[in-house]
Each structure stands twice: as structure tokens, then as C-alpha cells.
Amino acid sequence: MSAGRVYLETFGCQMNELDSELVSGALVSLGYRFVPGPDEADVVLYNTCSVREHAEQKVWSRLGELALRKKDDPGLVVGVLGCMAERDGTDLIRRMPVVDVLCGPGELDKLPSLVDNALRTRRSLMADAPDARPADGIDRRSARQVALQGNASRRTATLAAAEDSLEQLDLSRSTSPLDTPGRRSAYVRITRGCNKFCTYCVVPFTRGAEVHRPPDHIIDECRRLADAGVVEITLLGQTVNHYRFEHGAAVTVGGVTQPQKGRAFTGGHARDPLAGANVTTFADLLRRIHEEVPHLGRLRFVTSYPRDFGDDVLEVIRDHPRICRYLHVPAQSGSDRLLKAMNRGYTVGEYVEFIDRARAVLDQPEIGRPLTLSGDFIVGFPGETEDDFASTVALLRRARYKNAFIFKYSPRPGTVAFDRLEDDVPEDVKRRRNNHLLAVQTEVSDEISKEYLGRTVGVFVEGPSRKQRKAERAGRPAPGATGTIPLTIAGRDADRSPAAEGALEAGAADAEAGTIQWASRTDGDLIVFFDAPSPDTGRDLTGRLLRVEVTGASNLALFGTLSRDPAPV
Ligand code: 5AD
Ligand code: SF4
Fold first, then answer.
1. Taking the CA of residue 100 as centre, how many other CA atoms within 13 Å lie in the half-sphere pointing to its CB?
2. Which of 49, 178, 283, 556 has fewest C-beta within 10 Å?
3. Helix %, strand %, coil % of the chain (to 5)
4. Distance from residue 416's CA to the centre of ligand 2 (Å)
């Protein structure tokens, strides 16, 4: 029996993108084939996000469409993976019986067997009753496969076993050849879960307790990726700077070093007194990757928590040239009262102290190494007054982010804010504050971009720009077998992306004949578009580290031309 054709669509964060990549690799190694659209697939999977309701709504509407299709195609297997599966659990099946497979983010190592079982059961049901339609009495539930952590995800004993097999999923990538030859950029997870319990957030419930991966596993994975041609690695975690691995306590289960449950060091910006032989801190991890994977071009990380960010980390970034000077440090609000209600654990004063300290160590535009910051804010959190909002605007201006992600508060069942605080800011007020904050950020981003005019910046080339790819798709048939897995990553929420990339690129000068527009990023994560010969001329710039002279700037991106200066980036 052939394994089947799979369509997988991913919503939400970078962590979900990585999860999708890893489960895809596992399915491909079992003989599944990936197809670019749901219509040609036997198995349709949605890896979903439930941080805001908006993301879940998209999946509900996709599932509605599949329910119609399944009436005529009862062999179809539909799966919901990720945080939405974990959060909604079996309620999701009750509301949407089209779903056969439910798999939480802490159980993804089990996905291949869940899909396999669901396919076999559905196919055998069809073989028994080839003409049957659901109305003819086929028990659809018998094909159903569910793997969720439930509340057990926060119980340490259960966690140890669950995480052990989950670690295998991350490890599977380093024991099999790279699924996507030619790729130049990759994510590597360093921490799973979150212990912060911000009152609005579902992540500690859906992804479970914070667990740090063993440093040797992380470094091996980085090395394997770099050996395979990856130039840029982004380390992922909900609070990456809390990374801390205690070696002494390591145990081995089934041949795999057991990841340790992290104990956050909460000594402000002092050095960790236990750092040393038995502990690998985040600073140690960055230094080791930089030193032990010398052929890696760029090392980045997201997301940082604004508390407990030691000077040791800042110094390691400063002293290691291939570590990017870019920090994504969500503030969430500029009002101490709201930060308390959000359980963020810092005041506005402490946040500002941190970014000033980071700038003092890392902002060196005079040697071509500025520090850039980006932030997240929630507007319309319960009880937010005009004064609270004014404080948020003031903090956004003070922090001078190169960009900020701004979200309207979305009450999420199961969180403390949902249970205890009334969602009392009207929708139109949330919208107005959202737009206002975006407008202020646009001004700041514009100012920051203009500072780059006339400078030469080092960039990592991501590939032809999206405008370019669209033009190519319109002009000629889509490329066939490129050897890559066609993962579909749905755009982040509209308010999450700085703006539609299309609008961004429309400002670019029309390319001359034989040249195309390339998209790239500075080590401070600024987007840079430039025109250069197309890959058809035999020069594919994708994955190269190059220098670009900046000749144009908007609030969304820089524009420039390739530098003739051969100095290394
Ligand atoms: N409502 C709105 N925004 C939220 N975020 C997390 N939970 C919520 C919620 N319930 C935002 C935070 C976080 C980002 C990933 O999503 O700003 O940093
Ligand atoms: Fe959610 Fe707060 Fe953890 Fe971020 S730090 S994932 S906002 S609980």
C-alpha cells in the first residue's frame, strides 16, 4: 500500500514552522509524498496556532471546506496539529467531526503512526463498504487518532518521558540527510515550552513546561546543518535567554541524554554563580556554537525575555562577529499596572534599563555593527485606560524598535486573564489603539531606515524577492521537482507582518533586463532589496553573505545595489 500524499499547512510562529519541517521529514522518510495543494492530497494536515483567536478562525474555515469535500471523498484523512489541537482537544472533534487526527505539539513524534493508523482504518472502511457514504453508517470515529498531553504536560514525571521521545523528533533531523538540499537558512530549537505564565497566554498550557535541550545535541544539529550548506541558523525558544542546562543531573533514557527541566536563574543581570563546569548557560551555548561550528555564517536567536538577561550574553554577542546584533524583546505594555496584571515580572523602568544596557554594549554603528531591537505589544488588555495606552506609546518611542508586532488583546480560554479579567476594552477602541501604535512605529521605523542611507551593509541573501517569484510564476510554469518539500506556511497574522511584502517591493525600481530583484537581511534583521543578475545567468546568490550599498529607505525596507567592495562582510 502506498503511504499517501500529504498536504501540510502551517499557521503561526517560527516554532510551528520548525515543527512542520520536522514532522514532514519524518513522514517523507516513511514514504509519504508532499503535494502543493489540499485537492491532490490523501492526508490534509493543519499545524495551527492558538495564541490569538484570529489564527484559529482560519483553521475552522479550512475545516469547513474539507467537511464538504469529505462527503464525496470519505477516504480523506484530516488532521489538526499543534497548539490548537492541544487547547481545543476533543471539543474540536465534537464541533468538526471531519477531523481524524489530533496531535498536540508535545506529541508530534507520534504523528507518523497516527496518520498511518488513520489512513489504514479509513482505507479498510472504504474497502468494506466502497459505496458507503457517512450517512450509510460508517463509524467515522473508528478512524480517529488522538495524541494530546492534556494536563499531564505540566507534571514533571510525565514530562520526562514525553520530552524524551520528543527530543527524538529534533534529533531525527541530524541523523538523516537534509531533506531540502540547497537550503541556506534553518531553525534549531534550544528550549521547548514556557514557565512564564503571562496571564493572557496559552503557550505554557499548550507547549508545557520549559525544557532545555542538551547543548551537545544542539551543537551537533548546527554542525550537521552547516555541513549540509546552511549559512544562517536561528535558535528558537519562547524565552531563549533562559536557556540553562545542568549537566550533573543528566540521565540517559533509551540511549538519549534526557533533557533537563530548566531552573531559571533570576539574578538580574549579574552573572550566574553556578555557571561553570556543570552548567551550560545561554552565553556558553552561543559561544560554543560560534566556536565549534566555524563554517556557520550567521547565528541568530528569538525570542528573548526582557528579564534575567545577563551581561555575559551581551558580551558574547559583542565579541563573536557571526552572532547577529538583533534582539526581539517583547515589552507587551508601557504601563506598570498592566505589566503586573499580565504577570510579566518587570517594570517599565527595568525594561528600559535593559535596553539601555544592551545598547551600551552592542550598538556600534561606527564600526558597522548597530544593534536593532524589535518588540511585541498587546493593546486593549483588560482595564487598559487612555493613560496606560499613552505610556505604551511613550515606551515604543523610547525603545526605538526597528519594527514592532502589535496585537489586539484576544481572550483565550484557560488563561488567568480569561478566567479573572473582563475583556472590557471595546473592539473599536482596541482597533484605534492598534492603528495609532502602528502609525507611531511607522514613523520610528522610517527614521531608523533613513539612518542607513549611504551606508554599506552586510546582508544574507534569502533568495529572489516575492515580487520576483510571483512574476516568474505568472510567466512560466511553476518549477517541478526541486527536491524540496513544498511546505505551505500561511502568512503570519496581518498585524504580525510589518506589512504586505508586495507593497514593500512595489517601491523597488523595475529590474533591468537580465537582472532580478533579490531579498536579503542585515544582521540586524532589516530587509534589503537589491537588483542583481538572475540565477539563469549561472549565478545564484541565494544564501550568500554580500555587501550592499543602501540607496533607498522606507519604513519597511532598504533598497540598494551590490557593493563592488570585495571586503568580507
Ligand atoms: N492576545 C493578544 N496577543 C497575544 N499574544 C500572546 N497571547 C496573546 C493574546 N491572548 C502576543 C504577545 C506575544 C506574541 C507572540 O503574541 O505579544 O509576544
Ligand atoms: Fe506566553 Fe509569556 Fe511564555 Fe511568551 S513568555 S510564551 S507571552 S507565557
1. 28
2. 178
3. 40, 20, 40
4. 13
Measured in whole angstroms, the distance separating CA 264 from the mean position of its chain's CA atoms is: 22
Element housing 285 (H / E)? helix 282-292
Q: What is the CATH number of domain 325-445?
A: 3.30.750.200
Specify the DSSP element, H or E, that contains 172: helix 156-175
Give the Å distance between the CA of 185 and the centre of ligand 1. Answer: 26
Global pTM value = 0.86
For residue 201, which atom of ligand 1 is closest to its CA? 7
Ligand 2 binding pocket (C-beta < 6 A) is 194, 196-198, 201, 203-204, 238-239, 305
CB 478 within 8 A of CB 496: no
**How many Å lie between the centroid of ligand 2 and the Cα of residue 344?**
9
Q: Can you give the residue ranges of every domain in the chain? A: 5-148, 325-445, 456-562
Rounded to the nearest angstrom, the distance between the alpha carbon of 11 and the centre of ligand 2 is 18
Handedness of CA 356, 362, 367, 373 (dihedral sign): negative
Instruction: Judge contact between 259 and 211, C-beta under 8 A.
Output: yes
175-179, 351-355, 438-442: lowest mean pLDDT where?
A: 175-179
Residues in the ligand 1 pocket, defined by CB under 6 Å:
51-52, 200-201, 330, 332, 376, 378, 407, 409-410, 412
Q: Which helix (H) or strand (E) holds 117?
A: helix 111-128
Rounded to an integer, what distance in angstroms lies between the CA atom of residue 225 and that of residue 203? 28
Q: Which CATH superfamily is domain 5-148 in?
A: Methylthiotransferase, N-terminal domain (3.40.50.12160)
pLDDT in tens, 36-49: 999 999 999 999 98
- Which ligand is nearest to the Cα of residue 304, counting in written order? 2
